[in-house]
Each structure stands twice: as structure tokens, then as C-alpha cells.
From TrEMBL:
Residues in coiled coil: none
InterPro entries, sorted: DNA_brk_join_enz, Integrase-like_cat_sf, Integrase_catalytic, Tyrosine_recombinase_XerCD
Gene behind the chain: xerC_7
Protein name: Tyrosine recombinase XerC
A GO MF label: DNA binding
GO biological process: one example: DNA integration
Gene3D superfamilies named among the record's database cross-references: Intergrase catalytic core
Source organism (scientific name): Paraburkholderia humisilvae
The keyword Thylakoid appears for this protein: no
PROSITE patterns hit by this protein: TYR_RECOMBINASE
Source organism superkingdom: Bacteria
Amino acid sequence: MSTELVIESYVVENLSSAPPRNRATSPVLPAGLSEQDVVIQWLKTKIAGDGRLAETTLAQYVVEARRLFWYARWIDTPISEWTLEEAGDYLSFLKAPDKAAICTGRVPRGDPRWTPFRKALSKASARQSQVIAGSLFKWLVAVQYLRADPFAGYGLAGKRRQRGKKQKRFVGQDGIELARDAIAARECRTDRERAKQARDLFVMELFTKTGLRTSEAINASMGSIQFVRFTAAQRAKHPEYPEGVWMLEVESGKGGQRRTVSCAAVMGSLQDYRVAYGLSSLPAPGETTPLLLGARRRTPELSRNLSARGVRALRRDLGTIDGITDRSSLYRLVKAIFKEALAWWDARDPVEADKLERASTHWLRHSFAKNLVASGADLLIVANNLGHADLNTTRVYIDDEETARAFETEKFLTGR
């Protein structure tokens, strides 16, 4: 993973000479570690083993650790000294930080003006911060670095999905078709505009017909797509099977789990997209080209002092196209597509228009799941496609489960 496991050394000024009152002596941690070093040990446990965090999730854990240490310096109290009061004040601070704690503009880390806060956290974000902080302190107690957990009294259960609650954050089929039509209707006068049009159509197809998470899409390469042939035994048992199927291999799903998803439905738009970018129509095995490409070609700065190695690198990179590698860029791309669709749409349905205004990349994943369930796909197949470990997570996409269950129960009891 490329996420940097670095927590800035926030020095608490007025340290007591006595050991922190909540500090214990851990039999499993090296002696002499600073609080930052211990937290980095915790982060390392999060990227080891089968249940390791995805890189984007790990990045959020690093952000939360920075917030904790920054606040510890703000209140001049190391985390080993925190009581229920400091923990509660921290949770309140997340929702309503002091104005002096807000970092405005582009201030680099390391600058004295930098803080890990840009604004007050939303209710959902504050809850997530609470869950992560609780996870850290629970681990610190488990490895006997701390004697007690100051967050233990604050209900760190995280966000629980209400039983029976249905997923409403999705774009209907009409909205999806509208977005596709709006992209297809663009007047493209240059190769770059045509390439961007093909890319945007592929993005819509990819998320609505594979159900990928945002992080999974930006981490995928063209070589992740492979044609997998059925064995002779499989075709003998199932004569209706074709020669093979197109599959996309997800290397780093949620929790670090690998899975494959069918991508046959997106192959037509993939080929159009690749050709528009000057690539062969189908990806080569092991091809490292990012699955999602930007619209601009790279133009490195020229320098008279380039070494021979630098000149070779310049020639290699000149005119290449970078991939979309961060979630925010992809989020903005999809939001722009829906904004374009709304502007293009004359006769708006108020409900669908409201959804298009609020829709994001992740909504398209929900749209895929809803459509798959509505088509009659087995719930286990839907769960495996989405990478869900728990079928109850997938049940939110079933709209008629309660009424169907009631009818079947009544039929059984009445003998009708």
C-alpha cells in the first residue's frame, strides 16, 4: 500500500515528569516508543492479515490519528492522560471546532498554520471518527499500553443500519438513460472531446453494470479485464455456456478481499473508449494502463539541466495520459455528468431531478444492485458481485421483501 504511515510529531508542551496516569507497561510492544510510534504500530496491524483495510480506508485512519494528536497538542494533554472528559470534549470538538482550528486554503503539512480540520464534521463523519478513535483506544488497552479506555462510555457502536430500511440513494433507469443521452448528444469537435465523451460513457456503463466501488475503479488497470474460458467439463455440463466470459478482477476490495465481477455488458463501451484514446480495442494481458484515464495529456516541464536519464524519462512520458487516481476527481466527474444531464433535460420529473442533483459515484453502485435484484438475480449472486460479506447488507436492495413474505406466510397459514 502506498498510504504514508506518518503521524506528525505533535509535541505537548507541559509534560509532567511522572508517567501518564493511564499508561501501563505493554508486554507486546517495544519499550521506549512514543505515542506516535505506538499509533503507527496500530495502523500497521490494520494492513496485515486477511482482514486488512483497503488503502482508502487506511488513509482515513491516518487522518483520524492526525486529528487526535493535533487535538492533544491543542489541549496540551497527551492521549495517555485523557479521561472521559477529554474524550467527550474531543467528540464535541469534531462537530464544532474552534475557528482557530480550521485550516483554510492550501496550507502544506509541516506549515505551523496547518491543521487536520477544514470544517465541522457532518453527523455521519463525526460518527465515523468516533468509531475509529474507539477502535484505537480499545487496541491500546488490549495490548496493555493503556489501563483504561476513555472512549468506552460514549457508545462506539458506529452507524447501524435500521432493520428493514431500504436503500433510497440510487438513480432510476430513466435518470441513467438521460445521463447517457446527454453525453452522447455532445458536439465534439476535437479528438480530445471525442475521447472524453467515450470515457464518460464508459464510466456510466462501468458503475451501473458492474457495481464497483469508487476505490476499486481507480485502483484497477486495463489488464484487470480478462477473457476467462470455461473448461471442457463446464461446457459439457452446461451446453448453453459460451466459450468464455469477460471478467474484471478486483485486487483490493473492501477489507482487502479479492473478487471478480462480470464485465461483458461494458465491453462495447470499453472498446469505443480505448480506440478514442488511441489504444487497441481490447486490453492486453497484464496491461498497466489505468482503467480510468484523464482527459489531458501530460506535458512535463522542460529543463536545460536534465540528465541523460531525465531526457529518456521525458521522452517516455511526453504526451502520455495519466489515470484518475483519487476519489475526489472521479466524484467531480460523475457529478458533472449528472449536472449536464439536468441541464440537457427539458421535461423533468421532480423526483428523478432531485436524485440527479444529489447523485454521486456511489449512487451508481446502488443503481446496479437495485437493477440486479429487480431482474430476479439470486441475493447471493448480488452480494458476491458487490463484495458484501453479510447478506443482510444486500437485503436493503429488496423493495418487496416484506410484502412478499407476508403474502407467503398468509398463504401457508390459510392453506390457499
